[in-house]
Amino acid sequence: MVDMIPEDLIAYITCCGLTENDARVYLHLYRHGSSNPSQIAEGTGIQRPRVYDSIKRLMEKEYVIQNLDKKRAQYQITASYLILEDIQRQINSLMDAGQELRKFLKKFSPSSHQLKGFFKYNSDRPLRVALLELMNEVQKELIIMFGGPMDLANEPLIPTKLLGHKATEGVKVTLLLFVDHKNWKICVDLQRHKVEVYHIPEINTETMIHLIDEALLSIATIRIKRTKTQERIHIMQGHLYRYLPEAIKTHHYLLTTFQRNAVPLQTRLDDIKKSSAELSQLLWTESTD
Fold first, then answer.
1. Is 143 helix (H, G, I), strand (E, B) or coil?
2. Burial class of residue 258 (count of CB atoms within 10 Å of its CB; 0-12, 13-18, 19+)
3. CA-wise closest residue to 150 among 114, 211, 200, 213
4. Same structural domain for residues 4 and 99?
5. Do 51 and 185 share a domain, yes or no?
6. Which of 68, 87, 108 is at the close of a domain?
7. Coil, strand, or helix at residue 240?
8. How many H-runs (helices) and E-runs (strands) does the chain carry?
9. Please, are residues 128 and 183 in contact by the beta-carbon 8 Å criterion?
10. pLDDT digits (tens, 9 = 90+) for 63-99
């Protein structure tokens, strides 16, 4: 029977210069103690020739030793702190490298700030990191619009805490979205932190627009698709515009049009409170404070 090993543990161990097979063999020996190659192959699902390859690499790093008292070759791990020390050494090395690279980028300016055009992303990570960086840089105005219903609690692209923080710092933060029973609590909380929240009708559930800074810093237009099996958003296509006045002007006009027809958050809450006892109670409590 093949062992069920958490993938995260395997990833951690591979940072020591080991392969995935090596990590699985190591964790099998840690769990079961002294084992022969057949037992390791059965427990890991790795073919025996590959098991021998992994054992060889593990022995070279002194993570595994061979028990010579047994008639059949038996292997077991050495002191576990050896691999822990190596992992910590790797972490320290990466932290040092990160600091040096950060100093370099700060001194010579990140090239990404000088990009012109639009860029496609195959996953949300680069776009999420870029947006987070831009939001941190905003000094004047930040406008975000969602085209359809949005669960802000599980939205990977919009850090709500950062929005509240920027608003309290004096940045004008405007959020336009479809306010419903799932997200009104967070909307109310954001408004308490001076974020201007407006309700807009559902437009297109596959469109999200970010207009970051009135100084025409950046815009991102994202085509998204929600999956039934995942709580997060899978991005089908993302465009990140930088210093393109014509493109920004077009998107700014679109946002201005929606803002003109948007409904203040309190008006929207009054409309939906009849169907939500929890919302009614909250609004009643606030009116009596």
1. strand
2. middle
3. 200
4. yes
5. no
6. 108
7. strand
8. 11, 9
9. no
10. 999 988 877 889 999 988 999 999 999 889 989 998 9
- What does the CA dihedral 223, 150, 138, 143 come to, rounded to 10 degrees? 80
Give, to the nearest 10 degrees, the angle between helix 265-272 and helix 277-288. Answer: 130
d(CA 27, CA 34): 12
**Over 70: is that where the pLDDT of 153 sits?**
yes
- Over pLDDT 90: what percentage of the chain? 32
State the residue range of the domain holding 3: 1-108
From residue 1, how far is each of 27, 47, 130, 289 by CA, in Å? Answer: 15, 14, 44, 63
Query: Which DSSP category does 64 fall into?
Result: E
Report the chain's C-alpha Rg in angstroms. 27
Residue indicated by tokens 């807009």: 200
pTM, full prediction: 0.60
Q: What is the CATH number of the domain that holds 33?
A: 1.10.10.10
Do 56 and 91 share a domain, yes or no?
yes
| CATH number, residue 152 | 3.30.870.10
Residue whose pair of structure tokens reads 């098991």 in the numeric block: 51
Alpha helices by DSSP H, the chain: 7-14, 20-32, 37-44, 48-60, 81-108, 124-137, 160-168, 184-192, 245-260, 265-272, 277-288
Contact 72, 40 (CB under 8 A): no
